[in-house]
Specification:
This protein has 182 residues and is α/β, with parallel strands linked by helices. The protein is 48% helix and 16% strand. It has 2 domains: 65 residues, no CATH class; 113 residues, Metalloproteases ("zincins"), catalytic domain (Zincin-like, 2-Layer Sandwich), CATH 3.30.2010.10. The strands form 2 sheets. The chain has a 4-stranded mixed β-sheet, covered by helices on one side. A 3-stranded mixed β-sheet has the order 5-7-6, covered by helices on one side. A hairpin with a 2-residue loop joins strand 1 and strand 2. Helix 4 crosses helix 5.
Length: 182
């Protein structure tokens, strides 16, 4: 399918609860829709997300055009500061009480982590996530400041901030593989 030069494919998933969008590192765009969603719904979703899609495609294109042997290191250096500003802004926006340090890392398998000292680490690729998933990652790590495990109490804290955290967590796992692997 096509919307103003954005080529995309639509995939139905009977277990999907909402329409999701994936921009892969090669620039391809895939829309996953639940059974009840129509093609008109997916087209509207692509239209509303077109600026984000273009921004992600430009970022991935700039990384592919570097002549570095290790594009992830070049990409990391390029986006580390922007990712730090993004995370700091997200925490301020959430008005979360946070007094530790924030680190941005080039990780292969994690979106974030929380140390026992109260410091938070985030993968620089958080910039490439859709905003609703990036917000989930930040909230998830902030909740670890109060509960340093994945107990029921921890998930209860997450649910207070993000009631649909389970679907976001699932979407992050599905999308994460395309963004974390070089």
């Amino acid at each position: 399918m096509n919307y103003r030069g954005i080529e995309y494919t639509v995939r139905g998933n009977p277990r999907a609860r909402r329409i999701t969008l994936t921009v892969r590192r090669d620039g391809s765009v895939r829309v996953t829709k639940p059974k009840r969603a129509t093609l008109a719904d997916t087209a509207r979703f692509v239209r509303e997300s077109s600026q984000w899609i273009e921004r992600m495609k430009r970022r991935f294109e700039s990384v592919r055009n570097t002549s570095s042997v290790e594009p992830s290191k070049t990409e990391y250096k390029k986006y580390k500061k922007e990712a730090l500003l993004f995370v700091q802004s997200s925490i301020r926006h959430m008005r979360a009480p946070f007094h530790g340090k924030i680190f941005i890392r080039n990780q292969k398998s994690r979106w974030g982590s929380c140390s026992h000292n109260g410091n938070l680490s985030f993968n620089y690729r958080i910039l490439f996530l859709p905003p609703y998933l990036a917000a989930y990652v930040v909230v998830h790590e902030l909740c670890h400041l109060r509960e340093m495990n994945h107990s029921r109490a921890f998930w209860s804290l997450v649910a207070k901030e993000i009631p649909d955290y389970a679907s976001r967590r699932k979407a992050l796992r599905q999308l994460g593989h395309t963004l974390l692997i070089d």
